[in-house]
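Hi R.,

As promised on Friday, here is the backbone we talked about, encoded as structure tokens. Could you run it through your design pipeline when you get a chance and send me back a sequence?
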């Protein structure tokens, strides 16, 4: 790829002992925008001199912004496991979906270890499911009663985020933050994604509330009185 020489110069300057370098994000998919950065996953047991096991940092190098996620094998185990537990396995997705810049054989070993765990999908416990139903019920009631335009906007955004996450998690699908959440929802079920998002985008508040209720019912319905936490 056209960015490989630049990436190699960056890695040689900042992480010369890297065993694995994976290019992820929009640059890896040839979908860069004017503000795109270069997302790198960097792995190696001798990356750091100070005893650290992980680093997430932003660099400016030769006019490009680099977003770096660097780990020893022990550090990757900790942070990748945490991502799976939080249902947002960002660095596992980088490992599995990115493009190898350095260390193809070493990356293959990581992939063998993490691909099965990723393929299992998230497990939503009954406690977490109930909590998510309770939160959506509370936000939905506030949304239906709201009259202030700014409050409506904020509540609608919160409702979409929480509802989209519930849809994905109850179907053993990983969630994402920001722009990745609607992408995950569309990947899972384009029709349900459209049904939920269309009234939101057209500011049809009553229809949007109805779509949220539909998805809430699929997950077990409203939860309010009698809920304890």
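Update: got your reply. Pasting your designed sequence below so it's all in one thread:
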């Amino acid at each position: 790829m056209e960015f490989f020489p630049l990436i190699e110069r960056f890695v040689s300057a900042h992480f010369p002992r890297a065993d694995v370098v994976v290019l992820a994000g929009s640059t890896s998919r040839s979908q860069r925008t004017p503000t795109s950065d270069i997302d790198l996953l960097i792995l190696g047991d001798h990356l750091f001199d100070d005893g650290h096991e992980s680093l997430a940092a932003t660099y400016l190098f030769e006019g490009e912004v680099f977003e770096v996620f660097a780990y020893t094998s022990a550090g990757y185990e900790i942070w990748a496991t945490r991502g799976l537990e939080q249902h947002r396995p960002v660095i596992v997705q980088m490992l599995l979906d990115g493009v190898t810049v350095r260390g193809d054989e070493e990356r293959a070993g990581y992939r063998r270890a993490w691909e099965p765990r990723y393929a299992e999908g998230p497990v939503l416990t009954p406690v977490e499911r109930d909590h998510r139903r309770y939160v959506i019920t509370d936000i939905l009631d506030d949304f239906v009663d709201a009259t202030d335009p700014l409050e409506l906007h904020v509540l609608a955004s919160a409702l979409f985020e929480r509802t989209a996450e519930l849809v994905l998690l109850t179907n053993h699908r990983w969630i994402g933050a920001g722009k990745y959440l609607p992408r995950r929802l569309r990947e899972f079920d384009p029709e349900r994604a459209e049904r939920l998002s269309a009234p939101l985008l057209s500011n049809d508040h009553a229809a949007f509330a109805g779509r949220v209720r539909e998805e809430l019912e699929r997950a077990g319905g409203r939860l309010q009185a009698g809920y304890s936490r």
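One thing I noticed while checking it: The CA atoms of residues 188 and 199 lie 19 Å apart.

Thanks again,
M.
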